[in-house]
Write a structure and sequence with these properties.
Number of strands: 18
Helix content: under 10%
Oligomer: single chain
Radius of gyration: 18 Å
Shape: globular
Amino acid sequence: MSLRATARIAADADGSLPVLTSDGPLALRRTRAAVPGWTRVTVVGAMSAPLGGDRLAIETEVRDGARLRVDSAAATLALPGRSPEPAAYELRLRVGGDAVLRWLPEQLVSAHGSDLRVRTDVDLAPTARLVLREEQVLGRHGEPPGTLVSRLAVRRAGAPLLDQELAYGPGASGGWDGAAVLGGHRATGQLLVVDPAYEGAPPTTRPLGESAALTPLAGPAVLVTAVAPDALALRRILDAALDELAPE
């Protein structure tokens, strides 16, 4: 039987969490923040999910002046299920004025035979700041990947800042694993940093090693895109970019 679950988070500027609601496999826990003045929530997987046909979502509101970090206790594993329908995982993130959200989950692993659609929608106030990391591992060790389609749509002050969709695995366009896309790598990810401080002087476009690139966007934001042979190498690349662009 397929699951329907929506977990919810709301963070206030005083450090409180007026809304912290777990649902189904999405267990939310308030955890200790490493930096004073921040609120931290960790997503703890309560069962194996998402499976085929599941519909999971996390809704997060960072209210004016709040500073929230959301991470996860372990990787998310997309698995095949009894339903032939794709699984869906939606993240709906809202960040208010002078608020900061650091969305730093562990990797998403697309296991062989799985079919998952991920959609992340972000709405930012003009003075909001955002750090968002996405990492996908295409197949467990020694196996081919499942099908994974991931869309990221970010709006700032109601205007589009970034809207992109990536697809991997069976059913994706023919060159998804070719030299022009992954070049044989099986881990891919990106780091998006939105900061009003970039309004006048954004970082310049440049490569980050052999398999990553930093690109300023048409707005106060920068996007780092990377591929790597495995999850550990990918994390090292994105951690180095994070330390440079948005140290905590």
